[in-house]
Amino acid sequence: MITLDSLKPSEGSKHKKKRVGRGPGSGHGKTACRGTKGQKSRSGVSIPPGFQGGQMPLYRQLPKRGFKNPFRKSFGVVNVESIAKIDYDGVIDIDVLKSKGLVKKREKYVKLLGNGEITKAVQIKVHAISKTAKEKIEGAGGSVELIQVK
Questions:
Q1: DSSP string spanning 81-141?
Q2: Which tens digits make up the pLDDT trace of 36-78?
Q3: What is the structure's pLDDT at 125?
Q4: CB neighbours of residue 136 within 10 Å
Q5: Where residue 141 falls among pLDDT bands split at 50, 70, 90?
Q6: Is residue 57 assigned to a domain?
Q7: Nearest residue to 113 (alpha-carbon basis) of 85, 76, 87, 150
Q8: Residue 98 burial by CB count (10 A; 0-12/13-18/19+): exposed, middle or buried?
Q9: CATH number, residue 103
Q10: Signed CA dihedral, 88, 90, 92, 97: sign only
Q11: What residues contact residue 137 under an 8 Å CB cut-off, 6+ apart?
């Protein structure tokens, strides 16, 4: 019968801690397994990733390309066919689209594109809309309201 006081770890699963810098008799004395000289043998060393021994790092040698606009507005895109599948009465706005999973939660703005067909009349509030999407929604008897992009 196995009892708590008779439990032992399996053979070879436990190792003794390596005690470095405890004299020449231990086999890990003098340089404490660090080798002789060099940056890594010193105390307090922390070498950041991408460090190339003082050489100019590759990411700084490569030229910068293009322009990153800090004021860029990223739009979540929804197609008319997705709007046609929504079973919702009332005004479809960004909150409804997020709750239905058609727009990612991090998106601030929504643009409606005209891919697909729609037959039911819907009221929709978006930040931007394509010409074909507007024609299809208004052709089905719906209405579109544009929200000001800040």
A1: HHHHH----SEE-HHHHHHTTSS-TT--EEEEE--S---S--EEEESEE-HHHHHHHHHTT
A2: 999 999 999 999 988 999 999 999 999 999 999 999 999 999 9
A3: 95
A4: 22
A5: very high
A6: no
A7: 76
A8: middle
A9: 3.100.10.10
A10: negative
A11: 80, 83, 112, 118, 122, 124, 143, 144
> Is 51 within the bounds of a domain?
no
Among 104, 113, 115, smallest CA distance to 76 is for 104
Q: Which amino acid is present at 8? A: K
pLDDT tens digits along 74-86? 999 999 999 999 9
How would DSSP label each residue in 4-19? GGG--PPTTS------
Q: What is the pLDDT of residues 92-132, one digit of tens each?
A: 999 999 999 999 999 999 999 999 999 999 999 999 999 99
Q: In which domain, by residue range, is 128 found?
A: 75-146
62 in any annotated domain: no
The reply to whether 142 falls in a domain is: yes
Q: pTM of the full predicted structure?
A: 0.59
- Give the residue carrying structure tokens 């005209």: 114
Taking the CA atoms of 7, 11, 14 and 19 in sequence, report the sign of the dihedral they define: positive
